C-alpha cells in the first residue's frame, strides 16, 4: 500500500523483512517465493530482487533528502520517504539515520565515511564541519557506526558501520 501525505510518502508491505532492517543494503537479496519472483522478472513486471532499497537510499543521498525511515511491525513493514528539508530542519534522529546509511553506502563502495563525505552528503559548507562532527559523535554513541582505525588522529578519522 502506498500513501501520499504532505511532505512524505509511506509504503507498507505485508510481512516482516527476511533480513534485519539495518542490513538491507548489504545483505544478498532473498525472496519469499523465488519461483514467482523469477517469473515476474522474466516478464519484466519487476526488476532484480533486492535492488530497490539500494536505489532509493542512493537517490536520497544524491538529492540530499532526509534518509528513509524503516519500521517493522508484527504483520507489516513500513518505509517512509520524506520530501526535501534543509539540514537545519532535520532532527537529530534523522541526521544520525542519514549518517548510518551514508556510512553503509561508503563501506559497500570500499571507501569508509569521513567528515568530508558526510558533509557533502548533507550539503554543508566546510566552515560548518563541527556540526557534522557532532552527528558522527552521536552516531558512534548510538552504536550505529564505529571508527575504522581508532588509533588515527581526528582529522584522518574514518568510519564504518558498527557491524563491519
Structure, explained:
With 164 residues, this protein is of the alpha+beta class. The chain folds into 2 domains: 1-85, Heat Shock Protein 90 (2-Layer Sandwich); 88-164, Arc Repressor Mutant, subunit A (Orthogonal Bundle), CATH 1.10.10. 35% of the residues lie in helices and 17% in strands. It contains 5 helices and 6 strands; from the N terminus they run ββααββαααββ. Strands 1-2-4-3 form a 4-stranded antiparallel beta sheet, with no helix packed on it. A hairpin with a 3-residue loop joins β3 and β4. α3 crosses α5 (129-141) and α4 (115-122) crosses α5 (129-141). The longest helix has 17 residues, at 92-108. It starts with a strand and ends with a strand. The mean pLDDT is 92.
Percent strand: 15-25%
The number of domains: 2
Give helix % range: 25-40%
Order of helices and strands: EEHHEEHHHEE
Query: What fold name stands as the CATH topology of the largest domain?
Result: Heat Shock Protein 90
Distance between the termini: 33 Å
Task: Write out the strand line-up for the largest beta sheet, numbering strands in chain order.
Answer: 1-2-4-3
Largest sheet: 4 strands, antiparallel
Structural class per helix/strand content?
alpha+beta
CATH class of the largest domain equals Alpha Beta
The strand count comes to 6
The rounded Rg comes to 17 Å
Identify the CATH architecture of the largest domain: 2-Layer Sandwich
Task: Kindly list the characteristics that best describe this protein.
about 160 residues, Heat Shock Protein 90, 4-stranded antiparallel sheet, Transcriptional regulator, RecG_C_sf, alpha+beta, 2 domains, two-stranded antiparallel ribbon
Amino acid at each position: 500500500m502506498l500513501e501520499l501525505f504532505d511532505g512524505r510518502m509511506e509504503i507498507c508491505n505485508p510481512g516482516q523483512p527476511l533480513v534485519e532492517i539495518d542490513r538491507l543494503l548489504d545483505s544478498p537479496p532473498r525472496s519469499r517465493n523465488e519461483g514467482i519472483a523469477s517469473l515476474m522478472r522474466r516478464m519484466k513486471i519487476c526488476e532484480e530482487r533486492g535492488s530497490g532499497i539500494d536505489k532509493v537510499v542512493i537517490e536520497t543521498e544524491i538529492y540530499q533528502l532526509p534518509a528513509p525511515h524503516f519500521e517493522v511491525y508484527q504483520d507489516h513493514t513500513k518505509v517512509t520517504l520524506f520530501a526535501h528539508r534543509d539540514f537545519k530542519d532535520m532532527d537529530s534522529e534523522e541526521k544520525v539515520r542519514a549518517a548510518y546509511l551514508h556510512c553503509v553506502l561508503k563501506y559497500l563502495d570500499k571507501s569508509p565515511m569521513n567528515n568530508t563525505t558526510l558533509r557533502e552528503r548533507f550539503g554543508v559548507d566546510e566552515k560548518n564541519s563541527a556540526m557534522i562532527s557532532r552527528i558522527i559523535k552521536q552516531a558512534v554513541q548510538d552504536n550505529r557506526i564505529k571508527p575504522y582505525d581508532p588509533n588515527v588522529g581526528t582529522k584522518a578519522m574514518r568510519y564504518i558501520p558498527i557491524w563491519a
